[in-house]
Amino acid sequence: MAQTSLRVEREHSVDRVVRRLAESARLDDVGDVPEWLAERRRAGTCEVRRIPFTRLHRWSFEPDSGNLVHDTGKFFSVEGLRVRREGAPDWVQPIINQPETGILGILAKEFDGVLHFLMQAKMEPGNIGLFQLGPTVQATRSNYTKVHQGRGTRYIEYFTGPRRGRVLTDALQSEQGDSFLGKRNRNMVVETMHDVEEHPDYRWLTLGQIHRLLAMDNLVNMDARTVLSSLPLPGGAGPVPAATQPDAASLSWLTELKTRHERTVTRMPLSRVDGWRRCDDEIVHTTGRHLSVLAVSVVAGNREVTHWTQPLLAAPQGLAALVVRRAADGVQVLVQGLAQPGTFDTVELAPTVQCVTEGYTDLDDPPPFLQHVLSAPPERILYSALQSEEGGRFHQRDNLYLIVEADDAFPRDEDLSHSHRWLTLGHLKQFISFGGHVNVEARTLVACLQSLSPEQGWTWTA
Amino acid sequence: MAQTSLRVEREHSVDRVVRRLAESARLDDVGDVPEWLAERRRAGTCEVRRIPFTRLHRWSFEPDSGNLVHDTGKFFSVEGLRVRREGAPDWVQPIINQPETGILGILAKEFDGVLHFLMQAKMEPGNIGLFQLGPTVQATRSNYTKVHQGRGTRYIEYFTGPRRGRVLTDALQSEQGDSFLGKRNRNMVVETMHDVEEHPDYRWLTLGQIHRLLAMDNLVNMDARTVLSSLPLPGGAGPVPAATQPDAASLSWLTELKTRHERTVTRMPLSRVDGWRRCDDEIVHTTGRHLSVLAVSVVAGNREVTHWTQPLLAAPQGLAALVVRRAADGVQVLVQGLAQPGTFDTVELAPTVQCVTEGYTDLDDPPPFLQHVLSAPPERILYSALQSEEGGRFHQRDNLYLIVEADDAFPRDEDLSHSHRWLTLGHLKQFISFGGHVNVEARTLVACLQSLSPEQGWTWTA
Predict the structure, then answer these.
(1) Domain spans, chain B
(2) In percent, how much of chain B has pLDDT > 90?
(3) Which of A102, A112, A144, A343 is most exposed by smallest CB count within 10 Å?
(4) Which residues belong to any copy of the dTDP-4-dehydro-6-deoxy-alpha-D-glucopyranose 2,3-dehydratase domain (chains A, B) (predicted)?
């Protein structure tokens, strides 16, 4: 009988991965990467124009439901969603239904003893700047099974079937719960030992280079950020916290919130979603706030097919802010349990503050800690940048991402409302490793928090 | 700023809980507990009779859908389910839809320095023997919010609202994926420091006493077993494995299986479920195999209301077997990833073998390891008992639960199919602690595995 010691093996390999990631993070000279990305932008023919819905090709509104669907029944559809909760009025809204799991994968490989990551100059029609730095593979199932009828997905073979390398991380992670119905993608990092074919749209970068690019506005795309958040790395040069599991009280707190936010979510005809009206070129909320649906025509030179039309969602600009503090055992982060209409499992861990800000300056009832993070003095702001959401589904949607260190005036633990809780960063990362517990905005902030280095005046202990 | 060391606090308290549980497990004289349960059976007036559907009170078949529903729209309904997978024929079947989360809670308290657990002599109409040992609280949301119009749920106040005690475990766990559509219950253990009112249907038992009762057929109900499986205890007297997290490869294996088994699950009218036909007193599969739906009339003296009628599901007897082995770092268990029609998240970790056996002796394609566990010599069988599934929804449904130690003839690790994988018991328990990863049959087997003691010739290391 095999007597393999699974635990010892695991600990050995996790430690080694963490050490190699930390080494890669220390090499952070971005060199000519921004120029390469700019050059790729120039090289790629790309034009995105808004069009009326009638000019969508192979997309149409179903006669009965008014749902916006592709004629293959594939890709995704824009439908209506009804959320019913006891003691509250029903909430209805448009939602993207995309019941297939895509792959967001970063390929890793050692060069001269240092881990590098194969990143892509990726065009997405809704991206601010059109091209951003994406993971090696960013493919819906329709993409990589070729429903597009275009060319296959480059490098997909490292992530599916009998793999050529070693899986470092691999979990199903959610996307925006305000816009997607239970959508998840498989987030993977795979290390290969083999030679990898080169391509001008792709470059091998160190983790340190990626971290520096993450400090800039709208440069590292959402798909790359969520995969980066899964790496077993606490930060650019900080100590690695011991692998810990969340305590019973934290798990119970999350369970309690899921039970408290129990609701029934059902799909409904888009044409019957009250509060939104359909015009020639958009479906828009009567207040002008909330999500809207629009259509674009895309002509591109370096994507799977060269011309297509598709619907996109637009959304007001928002804020996602994480309050952190340093304690004897490392960094702690203040998360909230947030129930969004499309969340796969009712409630996920979310940033301290997550809200729409555009047009909401007159909020009667601002979310907790909004003023705290917006009025933080510069020395308390550890990270601040605008980052885009998925440009394949959203039209120029971005959020301000902030990491703010708590000051002495911050509410004491016992004064926090039940919706918020301090976790160690190690605990939050373990929730991420299981998949399905941490929302995409919080995962972006974890990737940003990991990117901080001592040179930015940030140390990882109190 | 608070500098609380969350990690140190946690580790201290987990260790202390584990030690106290181990102490409670050593006291295993069942004393007069079986007699008390028998006495409760005699004291409770209870009669359960099958009735035709027309004699159901407040339950009826909806005219259009043929769904079997309660006239309040509460409790649960029996509907149809369609599972669609690429490249496979659709699968349809009846399913219970119960979109509310109940509470299964065990109250714990120290007496003379030893942890005891408040267990209930619980009548459920479908139980074999009618009365079994249940958790302190076993209540649907309808129960404890009094849709029954009966009396409130006893001891519920220890599990909801501002609690009187300390939560030891608390997670949402699934129920039978072949019969329920995404149903989950909150599994909780709460320790109180306060005096607790006594009641003749409840007794404080040590963990050791519960473990001895678990060795008997059909005595500890499913609701109690699933809660017990969440306790941070590896076994009656074994060493406690360090808190470990599953390795990247195990998490990736589960993610891969979820992706591979991707499917679309939709509710459909019960009347259109092919293969089943509705008679006066049952809805039955044309082969006589699979689930059937029937109705019962219940007269009972010690439940929330004294007379009611309700539907129940019946199912052929099955087998759930876990193959285990001892390695240098503790016990390892062979699990499979199993996709059942109603599973909340596509695939859950399941026993090595889980199948229906009644009427299936002529299986052309038996599941892997079936012969291995059925033909194991007595000295390799660590646990064997018949245990009932939930008597509030199932009519006399039970399964044979087996724990079998692998012998030298067992397939080598590299010869296992991709659907099976060895995990350490510590890893499996951590999957349980997060909720939603381990199916109810596997959780029963974990509770049974934890109940084994050295007196039964079982030690926890190789």
Answers:
(1) 2-45+99-228, 244-264+316-456
(2) 68
(3) A112
(4) 32-231, 250-449
Per the CB < 8 Å rule, is B325 touching A412? no
pLDDT digits (tens, 9 = 90+) for B411-450: 888 899 999 999 988 889 989 999 999 999 999 999 999 9
- CATH number, span A244-264+316-456: 3.90.79.40
- Chain A, window 102-131: residues with a beta carbon less than 8 angstroms from a chain B beta carbon: none
Q: Of residues B81 and B17, which shows the higher confidence score?
A: B81
Check B7 against A426: CB less than 8 A apart: yes
Helices (H) and strands (E) in chain A, counts: 9, 24
Give B247's contacts in chain A (Cβ within 8 Å): 6, 9-10, 13-14
Q: Return the closest-CA partner of residue B444 out of B316, B320, B318.
A: B320
Nearest to A180 by CA among A77, A316, A279: A77
* Model pLDDT, residue A273: 96
Whether the pLDDT of residue B56 is over 80: the answer is: yes
- Hey, how many other C-beta atoms are within 10 angstroms of the C-beta on B73? 8
A329 with B7: Cβ contact below 8 A: yes
CB contact under 8 A, A264 and B99: yes
> To the nearest whole angstrom, how far is the Cα of B101 from the nearest Cα of chain A?
7
Please answer yes or no on whether B407 and A262 come within 8 Å at the CB atom. Answer: no
Rounded Cα distance, B436 and B430, in Å:
11
Of 3.30.420.40, 3.10.180.10, 3.40.50.150, 3.90.79.40, which CATH number belongs to A2-45+99-228?
3.90.79.40
Chain A residue numbers with beta carbons less than 8 Å from the beta carbon of B424 are: 6-7
* B241 part of contact set with chain A, CB < 8 Å: yes
Would you say the C-alpha torsion B188, B194, B196, B202 has a positive or negative sign? positive
In which band, very low, low, confident or very high, does the pLDDT at B162 lie, cut at 50, 70 and 90?
confident
**Which of B380, B357, B353 is CA-nearest to residue B368?**
B353
CA angle, A55 then A59 then A62, to 5° = 115
B88 touching chain A per CB within 8 A: no
Q: How far apart are CA A14 and CA A231, in angstroms?
A: 11
Find residues 396-415 of chain A whose CB sits inside 8 Å of chain B: 406-408, 410, 412-413
Computed over its alpha carbons, how large is the radius of gyration of chain A?
Answer: 22
Among the residue ranges B111-125, B138-152, B214-228, B370-384, the one predicted with the least confidence is B138-152
**DSSP-derived 3-state class of residue B36:** helix
Q: Residue A406 is nearest to which of B1, B167, B430, comparing CB atoms?
A: B1
Q: Does A13 touch chain B if contact means CB atoms closer than 8 Å? A: yes
Closest-CA residue of A relative to B172 is: A255
Q: List B133's β-bridge partners, or say none.
A: B121, B220
Cβ atoms A120, A386 nearer than 8 A: no
Query: Is A427 in Cβ contact with B99 (below 8 Å)?
Result: no
Using the Cβ of B193 and the Cβ atoms of chain A, whether some distance falls under 8 Å is answered with no
Q: B433 — contact with chain A (CB < 8 Å)?
A: yes
Give the pLDDT confidence score for residue B285 in this predicted structure: 94
Residue A180 is given by DSSP the state: B
Residues 6+ apart with CB under 8 A from B241: A7, B234, B329, B330, B424, B425, B426
Is A424 in Cβ contact with B251 (below 8 Å)? no
Q: Is the fold of A2-45+99-228 the same as that of A244-264+316-456?
A: yes
Residue A361: enclosing H or E segment and its boundaries?
none
ipTM, 2 decimals? Answer: 0.90
Give CA–CA dist A408/A458, Å, rounded.
Answer: 18
Residue B157 has a pLDDT of 92
